[in-house]
Design goal:
This protein is an alpha+beta fold and about 350 residues long. It is built from 6 helices and 10 strands; from the N terminus they run H-H-E-E-E-E-H-H-H-H-E-E-E-E-E-E. The structure holds 2-acetamido-2-deoxy-beta-D-glucopyranose (2 copies) and calcium ion (2 copies). InterPro entries: CTDL_fold (IPR016187), Sulfatase_Mod_Factor_Kinase (IPR051043), SUMF_dom (IPR005532), SUMF_sf (IPR042095).
Length: about 350
C-alpha cells in the first residue's frame, strides 16, 4: 500500500505503521494527537457507562450551547479582510492525493465576502468564553477528560497552559465549537470554496498561497514539519508546535497562515465526488458525516501529509477536536463591532 502523497524515502518501519493505521481506518495524515473518530472506546478506567460515543450527548448538548451562544454578541474577534467576488479554479486536475477528492478542477464564481485575517487565537477564544461561559465539546465531556485532560486551555494536558501563547491559534475546538464562536462574533464559517479562493490569494493554478515553490529563496512561508516524522522535528521554520497567528508572510489577500499552523474547519460536508460544471457560491453536499477541513498543520510533511496546498482537503466529524485543528471565520458583511 502506498502512503498518500508519495513517500519514496520513508523508512520501512514507518511505512508499516502507516499501513497499519490506514488499515485500521485512521486519519491518513498520521497525526498522533488527533482526536479519534466520533466513536472511540471509552476512556480506560473511565466508566461513564453511557455507551455513547464522544458525540453522544455531545451533539445535543452542543446544539443547546450553540443556541445559547447565538445572539449574545456581535463582532468581537480578529480583523477581517474584504475578499473581492470573482471566478476561480477550485480543485486541481493534477491531484497529489486523489482519494481526497482534490479534482476535478472546476470554475467557481463567488460573491464578495469577508475573511478573518488570521486563525482564531487563544485570546479571541478566551474573550468569547469570558463573555458567554461557553464550554467546548471536549471540556463538556467529563468522561473524555481523563484520557489526556487536554482542552483549549490546557492543550497538552492538565499541566500545560496557554499563558505565553495567547496569540497562537486556539486548539481542541470541534466544528460545533467553531460555529458557536463565529456566530457569537457576528460571523460564520467559510464554505470550502470561499476558503480555497481565499487561500489562492488571487493566483491561478498554484500549489501554495504564494506560488509553486515551497521555499522561495530559501524562506519559510508556512509552519509545517521539517525533519523525519515522527521522531525528529527540526523546527527549521522556527516552530515545533503552533506559531503566532500572524507569523510568516501573508498571502495576496493579506491572510496569514492560511496553509500550515493549524487545519481550519469549513462549513461544507465532506464528499469526494464533484461536478465539473461551473458553480455559483457552492456550499457543498446537503448532508454528510464529516466536515471539510483545509490547509494542513504544523504536523504536515510532504512525505505523509502533503496537504498544505490550497487544493488539498481532509475531514473530521463535527464533534472531533485535535491539537492541530482550529478555524477562522468569514462573513457576508463586516460585523458591527470589530
Ligand atoms: C478573561 O477573563 C479573565 C478573568 O477576568 C481575565 O483575566 C482575562 O484577561 C479575560 N480574557 C480576555 C481575552 O479578555
Ligand atoms: C535530527 O535531524 C537533524 C537534521 O537532519 C540532525 O542534525 C539531528 O542529529 C537529528 N536528531 C536526531 C535525534 O536524530
Ligand atoms: Ca514547524
Ligand atoms: Ca492554517
Amino acid at each position: 500500500m502506498a502512503a498518500p502523497g508519495g513517500c519514496g524515502a520513508l523508512p520501512r518501519l514507518l511505512l508499516l505503521v502507516l499501513a497499519l493505521l490506514l488499515a485500521a481506518g485512521a486519519d491518513p495524515d498520521l497525526e498522533p494527537d488527533s482526536a479519534p473518530d466520533s466513536n472511540p472506546a471509552p476512556a480506560p478506567g473511565g466508566s461513564c457507562g453511557c455507551g455513547a460515543g464522544r458525540g453522544g450527548g455531545g451533539r445535543e448538548a452542543a446544539a443547546r450551547r450553540y443556541a445559547a451562544a447565538q445572539g449574545s454578541g456581535s463582532g468581537r474577534s480578529g480583523p477581517m479582510v474584504a475578499i473581492p467576488g470573482g471566478v476561480f479554479t477550485m480543485g486541481t486536475d493534477e491531484p497529489e492525493i486523489w482519494q481526497d477528492g482534490e479534482g476535478p478542477a472546476r470554475r467557481v464564481r463567488l460573491n464578495g465576502f469577508y475573511m478573518d485575517q488570521h486563525e482564531v487565537s487563544n485570546e479571541d477564544f478566551e474573550r468569547f468564553v469570558n463573555a458567554t461561559g461557553y464550554l467546548t465539546e471536549v471540556a463538556a465531556a467529563p468522561w473524555w477528560l481523563p484520557v489526556k485532560g487536554a482542552n483549549w486551555k490546557h492543550p497538552e494536558g492538565p499541566d500545560s497552559n496557554i499563558f505565553n501563547r495567547m496569540d497562537h491559534p486556539v486548539l481542541h475546538v470541534s466544528w460545533n465549537d467553531a460555529v458557536a464562536f463565529c456566530t457569537w462574533a457576528g460571523k460564520r464559517l467559510p464554505t470550502e470554496a470561499e476558503w480555497e479562493y481565499s487561500c489562492r490569494g488571487g493566483l491561478e493554478n498554484r500549489l501554495f498561497p504564494w506560488g509553486n515553490k515551497l521555499q522561495p529563496k530559501g524562506q519559510h512561508y508556512a509552519n509545517i514539519w521539517q525533519g523525519v516524522f515522527p521522531s525528529n522535528n527540526t523546527a527549521e521554520d522556527g516552530y515545533k508546535g503552533t506559531a503566532p497567528v500572524t507569523a510568516f508572510p501573508p498571502n495576496g489577500y493579506g491572510l496569514y497562515n492560511i496553509v500550515g499552523n493549524v487545519w481550519e474547519w469549513t462549513s461544507d460536508w465532506w464528499a469526494v465526488q464533484h461536478s465539473a460544471e461551473e458553480a455559483h457560491n457552492p456550499t457543498g453536499p446537503s448532508s454528510g458525516t464529516d466536515k471539510v477541513k483545509k490547509g494542513g498543520s504544523y504536523m504536515c510533511h510532504k512525505s505523509y501529509c502533503y496537504r498544505y496546498r490550497c487544493a488539498a482537503r481532509s475531514q473530521n466529524t463535527p464533534d472531533s477536536s485535535a491539537s492541530n485543528l482550529g478555524f477562522r471565520c468569514a462573513a457576508d458583511a463586516l460585523p458591527e463591532r470589530q
